[in-house]
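DM from R.C. (forwarded with permission)

"hey, sorry to bug you on a friday — could you get me a structure for this? deadline for the figure draft is monday and I only need the backbone to look sensible"
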Amino acid sequence: MSADFVPPIRADLVGVSSYGAPQLDVPARLNVNENPFSLPPELAAAMGAAVASAARSLNRYPDRDAEGLRQALADYVAEESGVRVPASQVWAANGSNEVMHHLFLAFGGPGRLAITFDPTYSMYPEYARDTFTGYETYERTEDFGVDVGAAVDVIASRRPTLVLLTSPNNPTGTALPLDDIRAIGAAALRVNAMVVVDEAYAEFRHDGVPSACSLFGELPNLVVTRTMSKAFALAGARVGYALAADPRVVETLKVVRLPYHLSGVTQAIALTALRHVGLLQAQVDLLRRERDALASWLGEHGFTVAPSDANFILFGMFPDRAAVWNGLLQRGVLIRQTGPDGWLRVSVGTPEENDMFRRALLETTSSDDQEGRR
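My reply, with the result:
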């Protein structure tokens, strides 16, 4: 490395650290909202066979538009949410992060504005930074909802091109009522803005909570993004997708994506998972039950708990959340310091991991290094 050379790094990137949560080898890793269960053996075997088949043609570029996968995703959402859209209104990419990045590339950019409501997913400002899109956040209500009247006023006055709603929200786990999404989406439509509902945790929502996809007939500016990382236990495969009310959205996303962005191996794995939804749904059902049981336990032990429709729980309040986080880590449990001050977020793990978390939390909060909850 030459002492005389200074790379011409963009000024807004100098000194900036990359996104990431701690990756530590501890008995209970409950910090990044992964599905804690390994793939069922029969599904892993089926994926192995699919990858072996795909490997025979890796000398060729993959299906550039992932048409087979997009059709399978459309079929899955029709079954899961009761909303049928054609494959032409479905997009797939390397995780919902890349999907969202495509949306910022297509509908953001210099002189344009994205708005959202904090606390929410911490990657949104990075998409804005990378695409030179203006970015503004507005506070959520005390119960982590969105003040619809205030949101409508902000949209009318600031005239964004992207309005980001996260439901269930990360890091709070709260789901937005469909009427709130409808009202905010209508306000966005009046200023010709896209409204993007991030449903990364959609499969974990409580029974009776509808998907925003059900508003496609009312809101032509609506896009719903999802991932296969959580409910499908495919965090390592990197598969995300979007459903759009208007097929022109997907045609535009094709313009901004990199060529052949979704590998043949990735497509084969995702298609195989979609053919085994029943196996994976059993895991989701168990995680939902574990979430509700854990939320009840936290409440019974005096903690404040944000209602969650996701596979994680935001809980507090702590005078020194870093001390609690460190106390849990010393006992082999890794959770996440995120969201408003005083709160912590725990991913729902296996029953054994959840029990480990319960024991570690009680030991930590009763020890001398934490004076108590407020």
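R.C.: lifesaver. Residues 368-374 have pLDDT under 50 and may be disordered.
me: no worries. Residues 102 and 253 are 6 Å apart (CA to CA).
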